[in-house]
Amino acid sequence: MELTDLKLHHFRNYEAATLHFQPGVNVFLGQNAQGKTNLLESIYALALARSHRTKIDKDLVQWGQSQARIEGLVKNRFGKLPLSLSWTNRGKQARVNHLDQPRLSGYIGQLNVILFAPEDLDLVKGPPAVRRRFIDIEFGQMNRTYLQLSAQYKRVLKDRNAYLKAWSFGQKKDDVFLTVLTDQLVELGAKLMLLKKRFLTELGQAAARIHAAVANQQEELVLHYKTGVDLSQLTDQKTAEEALTAAFKKQAEREKKQGTTLVGPHRDDFVIEVNGVDVSNFGSQGQQRTAALALKLGEIDLMHQETGEYPVLLLDDVLSELDANRQTHLLMTIENKVQTFITAPSLSEVARSLIKEPKVFLVKDGTIQEEQH
Q: What residues have CB less than 8 Å from 274, skipping those under 6 apart?
């Protein structure tokens, strides 16, 4: 999979821009605050119909304008596919092959991307919410069933939390309706947890291979799924539902007092161990960086395994955060495999020696010029 063309219209600090990319490595060079990350953000948004930097859509519209638009041409094993995403006063509009998509679940997955930025170190040492978001975004691209289940689960969870909150404030409520909501969460939650277990097992295997190579076979990385039920009970839908139902019964009174749902995949996490030690709490900064890098690179092979296509890789100023050894493994892993977009003030000697014939764009104050050799 690759992005061959990109057009921006009033997106961030770009009034208009038309870019053509090559299948290999494309590099955006420029000083800070010139618009490099905005370009990567536009590719990410084109793929996922959302920014990775803000939840406020109007932030993406150029100052003084009323609308913004991104257009892209994706090339996959089936041919070429036009995508477009626009933001207006009426909301967000997504199109695939010039056809409106009323649901974003029908749009997401047409262009798969993996973003790696310095803040992704929080994936290892950050709170559980960061890792849950990582699972939802990445697996949602790979598996449409997961994406749809996740959306349904969140809607029921919102209703159940609102009901429990009113209950905690002393408003008289009906146990029967709460049971209906709980049963819906149990069914959806069991399906999500089974998918998460499979995803994390496969990601752990891929990341372990990469981590061992970066660490010169001296360290072993293992991912452990951390959930509210015994993992041995996550074998099939029936057993998973029984386990979740029992967990809900155990927490029933606490939920009514606290006014929130205490059981389910929305409270899941995963633990990253290196040589048997939780690297998020006890690992060195170097181990944490290696673990984060291994997870991100492991996604590449997993996404190919799940979808039949390699994703597009976005590296936002990440090379400067990695030492020469990790830079080398990163660039050797992606060589001749995935289309890659890199932002950087400049390319290190390591990068220039490993990247074969990159297409370089010079970015300055919202203007883009292709570097001439």
A: 211, 219, 220, 221, 222, 283, 287, 291
Task: Note the pTM of the prediction, 2 decimals.
Answer: 0.88
As a whole number, mean pLDDT of residues 185-204 equals: 95
CATH of 121-308 among 1.20.1050.90, 1.20.120.530, 3.40.50.2000, 2.40.30.30: 1.20.1050.90
- Answer yes or no: is 93 a known binding residue: no
- Nearest CA-CA partner of 321 in 296, 341, 293: 293
Half-sphere CA count of 249, side-chain side, radius 13 A: 6
Q: Which helix (H) or strand (E) holds 136?
A: helix 128-142
Contact indicator for 182, 248 with CB cutoff of 8 Å? yes
Sign of CA pseudo-dihedral 182, 185, 191, 197: negative
Of all residues in the chain, the percent with pLDDT exceeding 90 is 60
Instruction: Give the contacts of 22 (CB within 8 A, at least 6 positions apart).
Output: 339, 359
Q: Is 281 annotated as a binding residue?
A: no
Spatial distance between the Cα atoms of 181 and 187, rounded to a whole number of angstroms:
10
Q: Is 31 annotated as a binding residue?
A: yes
Total count of residues recorded for the chain: 373
75 pairs with which residues across the strands?
A: 2, 80
Any binding-site annotation on 179?
no
Is 151 labelled as part of a ligand binding site? Answer: no
Q: Known binder of ligand: residue 32?
A: yes
| Segment 113-156, tens digit of pLDDT | 999 888 887 889 889 999 999 999 889 888 889 999 999 999 99
Return the domain boundaries, the chain: 1-112+310-373, 121-308
Identify the pLDDT of residue 255.
Answer: 93
182-196, 237-251, 316-330: segment of lowest average pLDDT: 316-330
User: Per residue in 23-74, pLDDT tens?
Assistant: 999 999 988 888 899 999 999 999 999 998 888 889 999 998 999 999 999 9
Q: What is the arithmetic mean of pLDDT over 340-352?
A: 85
Is 34 known to sit in a ligand binding site?
yes
Same fold, 1-112+310-373 and 121-308: no
Buried b vs exposed e over 113-126: b needs ≥16 C-beta within 10 Å? bbbbbeebbbbbbe
Domain range 1-112+310-373, CATH class: alpha beta
35 appears as a binding residue in the annotation:
yes
